[in-house]
Amino acid sequence: MKSNMFLLRYSWNLILGMGLLAGLLLQSCAGNATQKPQETLTSGVIHISADASFQPIVDSQIQVFESQHPEAKIIVHYKSEADCFRDLNVDSIRMIIVTRGLSPEEQKILKDTLTYNPPFGVMAYDALALIVNNQSKDSLFTMQDVRSIAKGTSGYPYKMMLDGKTATSAVRFVRDTLLNGEKIGPSIVGAENSNAVINYISEHNDAVGLIGVSWIGNPEDSEQASFLKKVKIASIECRKCTDGPYVKPYQANIYRSRYPMIRPLYYILKENFDGLGSGFKNFLIYEKGQRIFKRAYLLPARMNFEVQNMDITQ
Q: Stretch 129-149: mean pLDDT, rounded?
């Protein structure tokens, strides 16, 4: 009888032990099945928001970064600048790309929310190009001309087309810089995006457009070259010039501050560890990303830029 009881107890303990082991194995397998791949500086998936007026250059940067790091995926959402800043409060957005940094008040709010200071900095410098219809007789403008067109007080028969009516970086530039804080007037017309501005100006001779030079400043890009067949880039009264009163938003003119409508391009990173957001930020501010900015005819902010004077004879 004792022998049978011993065997029964032994068998029951064995069954319990096997059941416990099976449970642990199942739990381990389930955990491995749901565990996310580890994120690194060059692998993982992140979402970022970017000012839509910089879509061509941001697309180029992401394309090269992902080609060099096949395990990395950067999903970009193009929006107005104001919407990008609102996305700093969205958990899934890791970085925004905009034309200004954080104000002291914004830094304080974000530090209270995130418990750390989000790093930010200038990556490159861009310019706002004034475009006109190919049939337009006017292609030289002073800054006073541009301001008066924006105000609706100009003698020119033009309205001004922007990549939106509110909240975009171009609208902020017009309101804060051209209009000195005055309210946007009826002479300002908002299009759906920068591409729509180009198309409208190409079909109408009663308007000028204000768009980021990254959309139209690279003659080596086939799409931008096609845009340049639709419209003309106007020349604006030069700042600091000794060899001519009007200049276009070319790289050298941005570098020498000769062109008057220049704006910075910032990253703001919502990450306090060595994740993919930090890896992409490093790419943007170091040699490879800076060379992409240079090839796109923006001015790199983190690398030396050389300008050589040349005499060209025909």
A: 94
